[in-house]
Amino acid sequence: MKPIGDLDAGPIRAVLFDIDETLTTSGKLTAEAYGALEALKKSGKRTVAVTGRPAGWCDHIARMWPVDAVIGENGAFYFAFTDHRLQKRYRETAEVRERNRRRLAEVGQAVLVAVPGCALASDQSYRETDLAIDYCEDVRPLPLEAAERIAQQMRSAGLHAKLSSIHVNGWFGDYDKLATAHQLFRELFDVELHAARAEVAYIGDSPNDAPMFEFFPHSIGVANVQRFAGRLPAAPKYLAGASSGAGFAEIAAHLLQA
Question: 168: helix, coil or strand?
């Protein structure tokens, strides 16, 4: 990974970013990080949050934050607040989502038995498409090996599973953050992401960001991404000096210099 100072920010027209421990710091959204996000938006860059957080949170984020859109539940949907209306675009139909929720509830109970110390994420009741198991947010932190066991339990049940900095997320459906980013850019911005990826920066911190790290030539990790050394299928090309929200602000300042 190269230092963020080596990144040529001139071509960047859009900034996609993870939320937990990328924009936030120890679960809090600091004034510094939020101000950096607002500055990016005011500069004319497109801003898109890309998160594993639930639909209930994403409704608020799309309406209230300085973003053009938000991708939630690891790619299950995107929401955008345009023309004073909230636009919702799901990858699966309502019938499929309802059927999958029942199956996810069964898997969740099995995981809790198999991996002592984990818990359903506190935001699970706001989710529409996935199962989130908490391994270090509101429970006593478990080692990453325990998080990997949770992911393996999910995969054995037929789910896709990804680690974030706080949860292990599992879902049915052939999508991820990157697939839905392609759909969002095509439908909302009339842009083919394959052709425009050199104009996009992606900022993240954990294994569920790996498809984005690999795809975008200007992918950037906040410093705490190094916690997952050896567990990233693909690493970011650039690295901030600071962690979490301070790292996000550092990256934003570099992008705004251009």
Answer: strand
153 within 8 A of 115, measured Cβ to Cβ? yes
- Dihedral of alpha carbons 166, 56, 200, 41, sign: negative
Contact yes or no for 219/212 (Cβ under 8 A): yes
The pair of three-digit structure tokens given for residue 40, joined into one six-digit string? 């990016």
- 3-state DSSP of 48-98: EEECCCCHHHHHHHHHHCCCCEEEECCCCEEEEEECCEEEEEECCCHHHHH
> What SS3 class is residue 163?
strand
How many angstroms from the chain centroid is the CA of residue 62? 14
Whole-angstrom distance, CA of residue 77 vs CA of residue 181: 10
Distance CA 105, CA 226 (A): 32
The whole-angstrom separation of Cα 3 and Cα 250 is 11
The DSSP letter of residue 249 is: H
Query: What DSSP element (H or E) covers 114?
Result: helix 94-114
Answer yes or no: pTM beyond 0.85. Answer: yes
Q: What are 99-146's pLDDT values in tens digits?
A: 999 999 999 999 999 999 999 999 999 999 999 999 999 999 999 999
If you count them, how many residues does the chain have? Answer: 258
Encoded tokens for 12: 């960047």
- In terms of Cβ atoms closer than 10 Å to its own Cβ (0-12, 13-18, 19+), residue 121 is buried
